[in-house]
Design goal:
Blueprint (H helix, E strand, L loop, with lengths): L2 E2 L6 E2 L3 E2 L5 H14 L3 E3 L7 H10 L8 E6 L6 H15 L5 E4 L8 H13 L6 E4 L3 H10 L4 E7 L7 H9 L3 E5 L11 H10 L3 H10 L4 E2 L6 H8 L8 H8 L19
Parallel strand pairs: 3-4, 4-5, 5-6, 6-7, 7-8, 8-9, 9-10
Antiparallel strand pairs: 1-2
Helix pairs in contact: 1-2, 1-9, 3-4, 7-8
């Protein structure tokens, strides 16, 4: 298993995303992923599946201290008092303290200084261990770091071969942080890509596995999600091959100006 090590903290580089997994499906898939070998699970307040994710972790034979659990707080709880209530609730709903607590999206209606202070306060009160951010462009990364007394470990963002995230990658590196990629297979688009199919065929892998390996070789953590056990297994089967420098460059060349697939109603000022 590869790891990313922001500020010296070891985080498994390949994790399971759970967006869109609900009820028994979420519980089943998380349990299966842990059996396969995943040791990193990502959820969020907004996903509505924290109880099921926590239950699957609690029932797993994998010791809790071997599992990295991330959750995120939604922006409508970014005022200080509301944030602390939400952070405490995450522990109760999950049935365990998360290993990483993130701000899910920037909220321009609440001063970032107030929210980051609340994030630090949540950590100090034991509602989380390390802390971080999600969907923050470079200017907001710098602002969040400036307001935080504790290190911010990661910025979790959309990242796949069709979206150039070089500016964010460079900024998190400057800050000693790591990048976590959600939607790493571009909502399934990579599987239809002839370039990724060709590269995959040369390694005996599918296009999705190539996209994941491309991220891992950049030192990026990736959290693919699937509701099917076979796909969960395939996504984990990426540690027995390596892409050449030429292949890495060819995949990076697939990025395009309209490559972003996650488009909120009020987006931040993307890089």
């Amino acid at each position: 298993m590869l790891h990313v090590t922001p500020h010296g903290v070891r985080i498994p580089a390949l994790g399971l995303g759970t967006f869109g997994l609900n009820g028994r499906v979420a519980e089943r898939i998380v349990g299966h992923a842990l059996e396969v070998g995943y040791r990193h699970v990502d959820t969020a307040q907004m996903y509505g599946n924290e109880a099921e994710v926590g239950a699957a972790i609690g029932r797993s034979s994998v010791p809790r201290d071997e599992i990295w659990l991330t959750t995120k707080i939604w922006p409508d709880h970014f005022r200080a008092a509301a944030f602390l209530r939400a952070a405490e609730e995450r522990v109760r709903v999950l049935g365990t303290e998360p290993d990483l607590l993130l701000l899910h999206w920037p909220n321009p209606d609440v001063p970032l200084a107030e929210t980051v202070r609340a994030l630090n306060d949540a950590k100090n009160r034991g509602f989380a261990r390390p802390i971080g951010i999600s969907n923050f462009p470079t200017a907001l990364i710098r602002e969040a770091v400036a307001h935080s007394t504790a290190p911010l470990l990661v910025d979790q963002v959309e990242y796949h071969p069709y979206l150039d995230q070089s500016a964010v990658l460079a900024e998190v590196a400057r800050q000693g942080m790591a990048l976590t990629a959600y939607s790493p297979v571009g909502r399934g688009a990579v599987f239809r890509d002839s370039t990724l199919q060709r590269i995959g065929a040369a390694h005996g892998k599918n296009a999705g596995q190539v996209a994941l390996r491309w991220l891992l070789q950049q030192g990026v953590a990736a959290i693919p999600r699937s509701a099917r056990e076979a796909n969960v297994e395939a996504n984990f089967d990426v540690f027995d091959f390596a892409l050449s420098d030429d292949e890495m460059a060819e995949i990076s060349g697939l990025s395009r100006p309209d490559g972003r697939m996650v488009r909120p109603a009020v987006p931040p000022d993307w890089d």
